[in-house]
């Protein structure tokens, strides 16, 4: 017999409420195999024995052990090669392998075994307490790995379900908003016809009612368009390219210059505002909404002033700031303003409360974040993070 093992009873810590872990005990020495079998059985494990590589492969497939206690030298092959086979990527199941040897006692032997995939390595003679403690330690590791795999699988399932649900909701929002446009157009057309036919025949109260109906139809049309825009943000299929933020801001500002009803405002754009990776059309929409927001919530006694600049973090991330001198936002509402259709003011300020929600969704689809820093009465600074272009000299 190669080693002398103390067969004292080792009390088990294995719970009787769950099946005992299965150990496959592999050694060509019958005495050693028997001694280990006794030690592990008394410690509360289910133990099956194999004396060579061929038996090990058969028993491993049949018993699906939690751990294989594997001798380095076997009569029909190398235990290290068998370890490599048991841990190979082609296996449908990968078992914990604890290699053990009475002859391969150098650090290079242990390294070769561990490089082959073994989870642990013991050199004989092995104290029974150390053997059982090592086995339990590896089984705890296996249990943690299995829990992690199970958790990851559950997360993947949840993410897949969330993705499917989001796609269903987006499709529903798109279909609903698209289908609602036709009857609303009919309502608007016939309201216009009635307006022409009844011109001059309605009382003042009837005219007021008619005006409210027309305004309601207009608001409904705007809501449908906003819902359609919100449902389309982040949909797959849009390609990102290198976008010059200065050009995006200029295009957004141009829309206000072309509007006769837009109030006057000044805008300062940093000359070094860099190029980023993104969707040009969507980024123009973000700046348009943020400038529009500054104009809607301006202070009546001063001209609206907007300032836009960018800063790079040490990690290379770009933060773009859009600052205004408007009425500001109280801290209690600084998260609510990004919720769809959330409005903090009445009908005296135009809009449907979807603009900032669209902006946040656009920035999130770019892998960034959008938030606001503000004090009531002191203006607001909207900050958004974007990925700068690798080669700033390239422009979209």
General description of the model:
By secondary structure, the chain is of the alpha/beta class. It has 3 domains: 22-126, Rossmann fold; 153-232, Signal transduction histidine kinase, dimerisation/phosphotransfer (DHp) domain (Helix Hairpins, Orthogonal Bundle); 241-386, Histidine kinase-like ATPase, C-terminal domain (Heat Shock Protein 90, 2-Layer Sandwich), CATH 3.30.565. The chain is 46% helix and 18% strand. The chain has helices at 30-42, 53-63, 79-86, 107-115, 128-197, 204-232, 245-257, 280-296, 355-365, and strands at residues 22-26, 46-50, 67-71, 73-74, 77-78, 96-101, 120-123, 241-244, 265-269, 275-278, 304-312, 318-324, 370-374, 380-386. The strands form 4 sheets. A 5-stranded parallel beta sheet has the order 2-1-3-6-7, sandwiched between helices. α7 packs across α8 (280-296) and α8 (280-296) runs antiparallel to α9 (355-365). The longest helix has 70 residues, at 128-197. It is elongated and about 110 Å long. The N and C termini lie far apart (78 Å). Residues 1-7 and 392-396 have low confidence and may be disordered.
Write the layout of secondary structure elements.
Layout lengths: L21 E5 L3 H13 L3 E5 L2 H11 L3 E5 L1 E2 L2 E2 H8 L9 E6 L5 H9 L4 E4 L4 H70 L6 H29 L8 E4 H13 L7 E5 L5 E4 L1 H17 L7 E9 L5 E7 L30 H11 L4 E5 L5 E7 L10
Helix pairs in contact: 5-6, 7-8, 8-9
Helix content: 40-55%
Strand content: 15-25%
List how many beta strands DSSP finds: 14
Question: Unreliable runs, pLDDT <50, ≥5 residues?
Answer: 1-7, 392-396
Give the CA-based shape: elongated
């Amino acid at each position: 017999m190669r080693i002398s093992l103390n067969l004292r009873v080792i009390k088990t810590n294995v719970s009787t409420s769950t099946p005992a872990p299965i150990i496959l005990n592999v050694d060509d020495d019958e005495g050693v195999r028997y001694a280990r079998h006794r030690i592990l059985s008394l410690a509360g494990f289910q133990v099956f024995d194999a004396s060579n590589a061929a038996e090990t492969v058969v028993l491993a497939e049949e018993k699906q052990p939690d751990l294989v206690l594997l001798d380095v030298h076997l009569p029909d092959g190398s235990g290290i090669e068998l370890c490599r086979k048991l841990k190979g990527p082609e296996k449908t199941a990968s078992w914990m392998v604890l290699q053990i040897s009475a002859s391969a006692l150098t650090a290079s032997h242990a390294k070769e075994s561990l490089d082959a995939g073994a989870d642990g390595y013991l050199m004989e003679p092995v104290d029974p307490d150390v053997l059982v403690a090592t086995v339990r330690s590896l089984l705890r590791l296996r249990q943690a790995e299995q829990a992690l795999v199970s958790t990851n699988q559950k997360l993947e399932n949840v993410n897949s379900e969330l993705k499917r649900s989001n796609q269903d909701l987006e499709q529903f929002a798109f279909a609903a908003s698209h289908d609602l446009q036709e009857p609303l157009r009919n309502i608007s057309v016939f309201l216009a016809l009635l307006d022409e036919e009844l011109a001059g025949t309605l009382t003042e109260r009837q005219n007021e009612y008619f005006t409210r109906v027309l305004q309601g139809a207009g608001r409904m049309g705007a809501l449908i368009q906003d819902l359609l825009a919100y449902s389309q943000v982040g949909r797959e299929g849009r390609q990102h390219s290198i976008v010059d933020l200065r050009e995006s801001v200029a295009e957004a500002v141009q829309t206000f210059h072309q509007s006769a009803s837009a109030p006057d405002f000044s805008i300062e754009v940093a000359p070094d505002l860099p190029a980023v990776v993104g969707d040009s059309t969507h980024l123009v929409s973000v700046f348009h909404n943020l400038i529009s927001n500054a104009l809607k919530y301006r202070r009546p006694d001063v001209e609206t002033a907007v300032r836009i600049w960018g800063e790079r973090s040490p990690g290379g991330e770009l933060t773009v700031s859009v600052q205004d001198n408007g009425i500001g936002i109280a801290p209690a509402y600084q998260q609510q303003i990004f919720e769809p259709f959330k409005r903090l003011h009445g009908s005296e300020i135009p809009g449907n409360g979807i603009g900032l929600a669209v902006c946040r969704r656009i920035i999130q689809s770019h892998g960034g974040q959008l938030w606001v820093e503000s004090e009531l009465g002191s203006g607001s600074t909207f900050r958004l993070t974007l990925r700068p272009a690798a080669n700033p000299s390239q422009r979209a």
